[in-house]
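Example for tutorial group B:
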Protein backbone atom coordinates (compact mmCIF):
# COMPACT_ATOMS: atom_id res chain seq x y z
CA UNK A 1 0.00 0.00 0.00
CA UNK A 2 2.70 2.44 1.05
CA UNK A 3 4.74 2.05 -2.12
CA UNK A 4 1.82 3.35 -4.17
CA UNK A 5 1.65 6.66 -2.31
CA UNK A 6 3.59 9.51 -3.89
CA UNK A 7 5.25 11.72 -1.34
CA UNK A 8 6.55 15.26 -1.60
CA UNK A 9 10.13 13.99 -1.22
CA UNK A 10 10.89 13.39 -4.89
CA UNK A 11 8.91 16.27 -6.29
CA UNK A 12 10.16 19.70 -7.30
CA UNK A 13 7.64 22.44 -6.67
CA UNK A 14 9.24 25.18 -8.76
CA UNK A 15 6.48 27.19 -10.51
CA UNK A 16 3.82 24.89 -9.06
CA UNK A 17 0.89 25.98 -6.91
CA UNK A 18 0.49 23.47 -4.08
CA UNK A 19 -2.88 23.28 -2.39
CA UNK A 20 -1.98 21.80 0.99
CA UNK A 21 -4.60 20.28 3.27
CA UNK A 22 -3.15 20.60 6.76
CA UNK A 23 -4.63 20.14 10.20
CA UNK A 24 -4.19 23.43 12.02
CA UNK A 25 -6.96 22.59 14.44
CA UNK A 26 -4.71 23.37 17.39
CA UNK A 27 -5.82 23.90 20.99
CA UNK A 28 -5.89 27.58 22.00
CA UNK A 29 -6.61 29.48 25.21
CA UNK A 30 -9.21 32.25 25.49
CA UNK A 31 -6.72 34.78 24.08
CA UNK A 32 -6.13 32.56 21.04
CA UNK A 33 -2.64 31.66 22.21
CA UNK A 34 -1.73 28.21 20.92
CA UNK A 35 -1.30 25.81 23.84
CA UNK A 36 0.06 22.92 21.78
CA UNK A 37 1.48 23.52 18.32
CA UNK A 38 2.57 19.94 17.52
CA UNK A 39 0.26 19.68 14.52
CA UNK A 40 1.62 22.87 12.98
CA UNK A 41 5.20 21.91 13.76
CA UNK A 42 4.75 18.71 11.75
CA UNK A 43 3.63 20.67 8.68
CA UNK A 44 6.44 23.23 8.76
CA UNK A 45 8.99 21.04 6.89
CA UNK A 46 6.47 20.45 4.08
CA UNK A 47 5.81 24.18 3.74
CA UNK A 48 9.51 25.03 3.93
CA UNK A 49 10.42 22.51 1.23
CA UNK A 50 7.88 23.99 -1.18
CA UNK A 51 8.88 27.57 -0.41
CA UNK A 52 12.59 26.80 -0.78
CA UNK A 53 11.91 25.36 -4.24
CA UNK A 54 10.04 28.53 -5.19
CA UNK A 55 6.64 26.96 -5.31
CA UNK A 56 3.44 28.80 -4.34
CA UNK A 57 1.43 27.58 -1.38
CA UNK A 58 -2.27 27.72 -0.65
CA UNK A 59 -3.11 26.32 2.78
CA UNK A 60 -6.50 24.89 3.66
CA UNK A 61 -7.54 23.58 7.07
CA UNK A 62 -10.43 23.27 9.47
CA UNK A 63 -10.59 24.72 12.97
CA UNK A 64 -13.07 23.53 15.58
CA UNK A 65 -16.66 22.71 14.74
CA UNK A 66 -18.44 25.78 13.36
CA UNK A 67 -20.89 23.44 11.56
CA UNK A 68 -21.18 25.42 8.33
CA UNK A 69 -21.48 28.83 9.99
CA UNK A 70 -18.74 31.47 9.46
CA UNK A 71 -18.17 32.22 13.15
CA UNK A 72 -15.55 34.83 14.04
CA UNK A 73 -14.52 32.65 16.98
CA UNK A 74 -13.55 29.91 14.53
CA UNK A 75 -11.54 31.98 12.06
CA UNK A 76 -8.02 30.83 11.19
CA UNK A 77 -6.84 34.43 11.05
CA UNK A 78 -5.20 34.17 14.50
CA UNK A 79 -2.56 31.94 12.89
CA UNK A 80 -1.19 34.60 10.55
CA UNK A 81 1.26 36.16 13.03
CA UNK A 82 2.30 32.84 14.44
CA UNK A 83 2.98 31.33 11.00
CA UNK A 84 4.72 34.43 9.69
CA UNK A 85 7.13 34.32 12.65
CA UNK A 86 7.68 30.56 12.35
CA UNK A 87 8.33 30.68 8.60
CA UNK A 88 10.09 34.04 8.65
CA UNK A 89 8.01 35.32 5.72
CA UNK A 90 4.75 37.20 5.44
CA UNK A 91 1.82 34.82 5.40
CA UNK A 92 -1.14 36.24 3.45
CA UNK A 93 -4.65 35.50 4.62
CA UNK A 94 -8.04 35.64 2.97
CA UNK A 95 -11.34 35.31 4.82
CA UNK A 96 -12.91 32.68 2.57
CA UNK A 97 -11.79 29.44 0.98
CA UNK A 98 -13.67 29.33 -2.34
CA UNK A 99 -14.94 31.79 -4.97
CA UNK A 100 -13.73 34.29 -7.56
CA UNK A 101 -11.91 36.58 -5.11
CA UNK A 102 -9.98 33.66 -3.65
CA UNK A 103 -8.96 32.58 -7.15
CA UNK A 104 -7.76 36.12 -7.89
CA UNK A 105 -5.66 36.10 -4.69
CA UNK A 106 -4.16 32.74 -5.66
CA UNK A 107 -3.34 34.01 -9.16
CA UNK A 108 -1.52 36.98 -7.68
CA UNK A 109 0.79 34.77 -5.61
CA UNK A 110 4.43 34.90 -6.68
CA UNK A 111 6.84 32.01 -6.44
CA UNK A 112 7.85 31.39 -2.81
CA UNK A 113 4.70 33.06 -1.41
CA UNK A 114 2.03 31.62 0.84
CA UNK A 115 -1.69 32.18 1.29
CA UNK A 116 -3.69 30.85 4.24
CA UNK A 117 -7.41 30.48 3.57
CA UNK A 118 -10.34 30.60 5.96
CA UNK A 119 -11.75 27.61 7.86
CA UNK A 120 -13.10 24.94 5.48
CA UNK A 121 -15.85 24.08 7.93
CA UNK A 122 -17.47 27.50 7.41
CA UNK A 123 -19.07 25.54 4.57
CA UNK A 124 -21.23 22.65 5.72
CA UNK A 125 -20.29 20.94 2.46
CA UNK A 126 -16.82 20.21 3.85
CA UNK A 127 -18.21 17.49 6.08
CA UNK A 128 -20.51 16.04 3.41
CA UNK A 129 -18.17 14.75 0.68
CA UNK A 130 -19.57 17.35 -1.71
CA UNK A 131 -18.40 17.25 -5.35
CA UNK A 132 -19.20 20.91 -6.08
CA UNK A 133 -17.33 22.19 -3.04
CA UNK A 134 -14.39 19.96 -3.99
CA UNK A 135 -14.48 21.31 -7.54
CA UNK A 136 -14.37 24.90 -6.28
CA UNK A 137 -11.42 24.09 -4.02
CA UNK A 138 -9.62 22.29 -6.84
CA UNK A 139 -9.32 25.60 -8.72
CA UNK A 140 -6.84 26.83 -6.11
CA UNK A 141 -3.77 24.83 -7.09
CA UNK A 142 -2.38 22.37 -9.59
CA UNK A 143 -0.83 19.99 -7.03
CA UNK A 144 -2.77 18.59 -4.07
CA UNK A 145 -0.77 17.74 -0.95
CA UNK A 146 -2.36 15.94 1.98
CA UNK A 147 -0.37 16.69 5.11
CA UNK A 148 -3.13 16.00 7.61
CA UNK A 149 -2.86 12.46 8.97
CA UNK A 150 -5.07 13.38 11.91
CA UNK A 151 -8.08 13.83 9.64
CA UNK A 152 -7.31 10.96 7.26
CA UNK A 153 -10.03 8.87 8.97
CA UNK A 154 -12.74 11.39 8.08
CA UNK A 155 -15.01 11.22 5.06
CA UNK A 156 -14.67 14.94 4.45
CA UNK A 157 -14.62 16.74 1.11
CA UNK A 158 -11.07 18.10 1.27
CA UNK A 159 -9.77 14.66 2.28
CA UNK A 160 -11.62 12.17 0.11
CA UNK A 161 -13.20 14.06 -2.80
CA UNK A 162 -10.80 16.90 -3.57
CA UNK A 163 -7.81 14.71 -4.63
CA UNK A 164 -9.92 13.15 -7.40
CA UNK A 165 -9.90 16.47 -9.26
CA UNK A 166 -6.12 16.50 -9.55
CA UNK A 167 -5.35 13.24 -11.30
CA UNK A 168 -3.05 10.69 -9.67
CA UNK A 169 0.24 12.26 -10.69
CA UNK A 170 -0.60 15.56 -9.06
CA UNK A 171 -1.56 14.13 -5.69
CA UNK A 172 1.17 13.96 -3.09
CA UNK A 173 1.32 13.24 0.60
CA UNK A 174 3.54 13.84 3.52
CA UNK A 175 1.72 11.53 5.88
CA UNK A 176 3.77 8.53 4.74
CA UNK A 177 5.92 9.02 7.82
CA UNK A 178 3.00 8.36 10.19
CA UNK A 179 2.02 5.31 8.22
CA UNK A 180 5.53 3.91 8.28
CA UNK A 181 5.72 4.32 12.04
CA UNK A 182 2.42 2.57 12.50
CA UNK A 183 3.63 -0.31 10.31
CA UNK A 184 6.20 -1.16 12.97
CA UNK A 185 3.28 -2.34 15.06
CA UNK A 186 0.76 -3.36 12.42
CA UNK A 187 2.99 -5.91 10.80
CA UNK A 188 5.38 -6.54 13.67
CA UNK A 189 8.20 -4.87 11.72
CA UNK A 190 9.62 -3.07 14.76
CA UNK A 191 12.48 -4.32 16.93
CA UNK A 192 11.33 -6.82 19.54
CA UNK A 193 9.96 -6.92 22.14
CA UNK A 194 7.02 -4.93 20.75
CA UNK A 195 4.72 -3.60 23.47
CA UNK A 196 1.32 -1.98 23.12
CA UNK A 197 -0.23 -0.12 26.06
CA UNK A 198 -3.89 0.68 25.92
CA UNK A 199 -5.88 2.60 28.50
CA UNK A 200 -8.69 5.11 28.79
CA UNK A 201 -12.37 4.51 29.17
CA UNK A 202 -13.80 3.57 25.80
CA UNK A 203 -12.92 -0.08 25.28
CA UNK A 204 -15.28 -0.11 22.29
CA UNK A 205 -12.90 2.20 20.42
CA UNK A 206 -9.85 0.01 21.06
CA UNK A 207 -10.98 -3.59 21.30
CA UNK A 208 -10.45 -4.30 17.60
CA UNK A 209 -6.85 -3.14 18.01
CA UNK A 210 -6.25 -5.91 20.52
CA UNK A 211 -7.77 -8.43 18.13
CA UNK A 212 -5.55 -7.20 15.31
CA UNK A 213 -2.28 -6.69 17.15
CA UNK A 214 -2.33 -9.86 19.21
CA UNK A 215 -0.72 -11.50 16.19
CA UNK A 216 2.21 -9.08 16.07
CA UNK A 217 2.87 -7.80 19.59
CA UNK A 218 4.93 -9.42 22.33
CA UNK A 219 3.07 -7.67 25.14
CA UNK A 220 -0.31 -5.96 25.26
CA UNK A 221 -0.74 -4.06 28.53
CA UNK A 222 -4.24 -2.95 29.42
CA UNK A 223 -4.93 -0.33 32.06
CA UNK A 224 -7.47 2.31 33.03
CA UNK A 225 -11.18 1.83 32.54
CA UNK A 226 -10.47 -0.57 29.69
CA UNK A 227 -9.36 -3.30 32.07
CA UNK A 228 -12.62 -3.82 33.98
CA UNK A 229 -14.59 -5.64 31.26
CA UNK A 230 -11.67 -8.13 31.08
CA UNK A 231 -11.64 -8.64 34.84
CA UNK A 232 -15.42 -9.04 34.92
CA UNK A 233 -15.46 -11.63 32.17
CA UNK A 234 -12.81 -13.58 34.05
CA UNK A 235 -15.14 -13.72 37.06
CA UNK A 236 -13.55 -10.90 39.12
CA UNK A 237 -15.51 -8.45 41.28
CA UNK A 238 -15.11 -4.91 40.00
CA UNK A 239 -17.48 -3.08 42.39
CA UNK A 240 -18.65 0.21 40.90
CA UNK A 241 -15.72 0.55 38.50
CA UNK A 242 -16.30 1.88 35.02
CA UNK A 243 -17.87 -0.56 32.62
CA UNK A 244 -18.87 0.57 29.18
CA UNK A 245 -22.33 -0.71 28.30
CA UNK A 246 -22.11 -2.35 24.91
CA UNK A 247 -23.19 -5.93 24.20
CA UNK A 248 -20.58 -6.27 21.49
CA UNK A 249 -17.74 -5.81 23.97
CA UNK A 250 -18.56 -8.95 25.94
CA UNK A 251 -18.95 -10.96 22.74
CA UNK A 252 -15.69 -9.68 21.30
CA UNK A 253 -13.82 -10.32 24.53
CA UNK A 254 -15.13 -13.89 24.67
CA UNK A 255 -14.09 -14.32 21.04
CA UNK A 256 -10.58 -13.06 21.78
CA UNK A 257 -10.22 -15.40 24.76
CA UNK A 258 -11.46 -18.34 22.69
CA UNK A 259 -9.71 -17.67 19.36
CA UNK A 260 -6.33 -16.73 20.80
CA UNK A 261 -6.12 -19.20 23.69
CA UNK A 262 -2.48 -19.91 22.86
CA UNK A 263 -1.60 -16.21 22.76
CA UNK A 264 -3.64 -14.95 25.65
CA UNK A 265 -0.58 -14.61 27.91
CA UNK A 266 0.47 -11.69 25.69
CA UNK A 267 -2.33 -9.66 27.31
CA UNK A 268 -1.39 -8.29 30.73
CA UNK A 269 -4.05 -6.84 33.00
CA UNK A 270 -3.56 -4.83 36.19
CA UNK A 271 -3.00 -6.84 39.38
CA UNK A 272 -3.98 -4.12 41.85
CA UNK A 273 -5.82 -0.81 41.79
CA UNK A 274 -6.21 2.37 43.79
CA UNK A 275 -9.92 2.19 44.58
CA UNK A 276 -12.04 5.17 45.63
CA UNK A 277 -15.37 5.40 47.44
CA UNK A 278 -16.57 8.15 45.07
CA UNK A 279 -15.58 9.70 41.75
CA UNK A 280 -13.63 12.68 43.01
CA UNK A 281 -10.05 13.65 43.78
CA UNK A 282 -10.66 13.86 47.55
CA UNK A 283 -12.37 10.46 47.80
CA UNK A 284 -11.26 7.92 50.42
CA UNK A 285 -8.90 5.42 48.83
CA UNK A 286 -7.46 1.96 49.36
CA UNK A 287 -5.10 -0.15 47.29
CA UNK A 288 -6.61 -3.57 46.66
CA UNK A 289 -6.41 -6.49 44.20
CA UNK A 290 -8.28 -5.69 40.99
CA UNK A 291 -10.28 -8.92 41.20
CA UNK A 292 -11.94 -8.04 44.49
CA UNK A 293 -13.23 -4.49 44.46
CA UNK A 294 -16.18 -4.25 46.89
CA UNK A 295 -19.47 -2.64 45.94
CA UNK A 296 -19.41 1.09 46.63
CA UNK A 297 -15.76 1.29 45.48
CA UNK A 298 -14.31 1.93 42.04
CA UNK A 299 -10.84 1.47 40.60
CA UNK A 300 -9.50 4.86 39.48
CA UNK A 301 -5.78 4.14 39.00
CA UNK A 302 -3.46 1.17 38.63
CA UNK A 303 -1.79 0.15 41.91
CA UNK A 304 1.95 -0.06 42.77
CA UNK A 305 2.37 -3.74 41.90
CA UNK A 306 0.86 -3.11 38.47
CA UNK A 307 3.03 -0.05 37.92
CA UNK A 308 6.10 -2.17 38.73
CA UNK A 309 5.02 -5.00 36.43
CA UNK A 310 4.11 -2.71 33.52
CA UNK A 311 7.28 -0.63 33.91
CA UNK A 312 9.48 -3.75 33.89
CA UNK A 313 7.94 -4.77 30.58
CA UNK A 314 8.34 -1.27 29.13
CA UNK A 315 11.98 -1.17 30.23
CA UNK A 316 12.83 -4.30 28.26
CA UNK A 317 10.77 -3.31 25.18
CA UNK A 318 12.37 -1.97 22.01
CA UNK A 319 9.21 -0.76 20.25
CA UNK A 320 6.44 0.83 22.31
CA UNK A 321 3.02 2.20 21.42
CA UNK A 322 0.79 3.91 23.98
CA UNK A 323 -2.75 5.24 23.74
CA UNK A 324 -4.96 6.09 26.72
CA UNK A 325 -4.36 6.87 30.42
CA UNK A 326 -3.96 4.19 33.12
CA UNK A 327 -6.49 5.88 35.37
CA UNK A 328 -8.43 9.08 35.96
CA UNK A 329 -5.22 11.08 35.65
CA UNK A 330 -7.13 14.38 35.60
CA UNK A 331 -7.49 13.87 39.39
CA UNK A 332 -4.05 14.42 40.92
CA UNK A 333 -4.62 11.60 43.44
CA UNK A 334 -5.24 9.08 40.67
CA UNK A 335 -2.59 10.20 38.21
CA UNK A 336 0.41 8.33 39.57
CA UNK A 337 0.05 5.23 37.35
CA UNK A 338 -0.28 7.24 34.14
CA UNK A 339 2.60 9.56 35.02
CA UNK A 340 4.88 6.63 35.92
CA UNK A 341 4.11 4.97 32.60
CA UNK A 342 4.80 8.25 30.74
CA UNK A 343 8.17 8.66 32.48
CA UNK A 344 9.19 5.05 31.95
CA UNK A 345 8.39 5.17 28.22
CA UNK A 346 10.43 8.37 27.94
CA UNK A 347 13.37 6.74 29.77
CA UNK A 348 13.22 3.64 27.56
CA UNK A 349 13.22 5.89 24.50
CA UNK A 350 16.32 7.65 25.75
CA UNK A 351 17.96 4.24 26.04
CA UNK A 352 17.19 3.46 22.40
CA UNK A 353 13.61 2.13 22.20
CA UNK A 354 11.23 3.52 19.56
CA UNK A 355 8.08 5.03 21.05
CA UNK A 356 4.90 6.17 19.32
CA UNK A 357 2.28 7.87 21.44
CA UNK A 358 -1.16 9.04 20.48
CA UNK A 359 -4.32 10.34 22.10
CA UNK A 360 -4.69 13.71 23.81
CA UNK A 361 -4.63 12.30 27.35
CA UNK A 362 -1.40 10.36 26.92
CA UNK A 363 0.23 13.45 25.44
CA UNK A 364 -1.07 15.58 28.31
CA UNK A 365 0.42 13.22 30.89
CA UNK A 366 3.80 13.30 29.12
CA UNK A 367 3.71 17.06 29.32
CA UNK A 368 2.84 16.88 33.05
CA UNK A 369 6.10 15.01 33.50
CA UNK A 370 7.99 17.24 31.07
CA UNK A 371 9.05 14.31 28.99
CA UNK A 372 7.09 14.75 25.75
CA UNK A 373 10.23 15.84 23.88
CA UNK A 374 11.88 12.50 24.65
CA UNK A 375 9.29 10.44 22.75
CA UNK A 376 10.24 9.21 19.27
CA UNK A 377 6.98 10.29 17.67
CA UNK A 378 3.91 12.02 19.08
CA UNK A 379 1.04 11.14 16.79
CA UNK A 380 -1.27 14.06 16.19
CA UNK A 381 -4.04 11.81 14.97
CA UNK A 382 -5.79 9.98 17.82
CA UNK A 383 -8.75 8.66 15.80
CA UNK A 384 -6.73 8.09 12.63
CA UNK A 385 -4.09 6.22 14.63
CA UNK A 386 -6.68 3.98 16.29
CA UNK A 387 -8.36 3.22 12.95
CA UNK A 388 -5.00 2.39 11.34
CA UNK A 389 -4.16 0.02 14.17
CA UNK A 390 -7.44 -1.78 13.53
CA UNK A 391 -6.02 -2.30 10.05
CA UNK A 392 -8.78 -0.20 8.52
CA UNK A 393 -7.92 1.51 5.26
CA UNK A 394 -8.21 5.21 6.09
CA UNK A 395 -10.55 7.00 3.66
CA UNK A 396 -7.97 9.77 3.21
CA UNK A 397 -5.40 7.22 2.06
CA UNK A 398 -7.81 5.26 -0.09
CA UNK A 399 -8.63 8.50 -1.93
CA UNK A 400 -5.05 9.10 -2.95
CA UNK A 401 -3.76 5.69 -3.99
P1 LIG B 1 -10.40 7.45 26.14
O1 LIG B 1 -11.06 8.60 25.47
O2 LIG B 1 -11.07 6.14 25.90
O3 LIG B 1 -8.90 7.38 25.86
O4 LIG B 1 -10.55 7.72 27.71
C1 LIG B 1 -9.88 8.74 28.41
C2 LIG B 1 -10.53 8.93 29.74
O5 LIG B 1 -10.54 7.70 30.46
C3 LIG B 1 -9.85 9.92 30.66
O6 LIG B 1 -10.65 11.06 30.78
C4 LIG B 1 -9.74 9.18 32.00
O7 LIG B 1 -10.15 9.96 33.10
C5 LIG B 1 -10.68 8.01 31.81
N1 LIG B 1 -10.33 6.86 32.65
C6 LIG B 1 -9.18 6.19 32.68
N2 LIG B 1 -9.20 5.23 33.61
C7 LIG B 1 -10.41 5.28 34.20
C8 LIG B 1 -11.03 4.55 35.25
N3 LIG B 1 -10.40 3.56 35.88
N4 LIG B 1 -12.29 4.89 35.59
C9 LIG B 1 -12.94 5.90 34.95
N5 LIG B 1 -12.40 6.62 33.95
C10 LIG B 1 -11.15 6.32 33.58
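The residue assignment follows.
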Amino acid sequence: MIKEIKTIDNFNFENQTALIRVDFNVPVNKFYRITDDTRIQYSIPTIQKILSEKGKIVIISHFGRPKGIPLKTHSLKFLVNYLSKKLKITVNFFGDCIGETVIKKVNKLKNGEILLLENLRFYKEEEKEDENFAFELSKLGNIYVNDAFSVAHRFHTSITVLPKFFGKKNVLVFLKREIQYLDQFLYGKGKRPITILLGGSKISSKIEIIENLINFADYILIGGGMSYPFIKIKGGKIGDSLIEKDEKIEKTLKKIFHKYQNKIEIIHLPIDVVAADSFKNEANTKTIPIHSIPNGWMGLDIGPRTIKKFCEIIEKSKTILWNGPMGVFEFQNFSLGTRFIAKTIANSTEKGAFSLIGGGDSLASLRMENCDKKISYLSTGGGAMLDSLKNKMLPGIKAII
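The chain has 14 helices and 17 strands. Compare this with the pattern of hydrophobic and polar residues in the output above.
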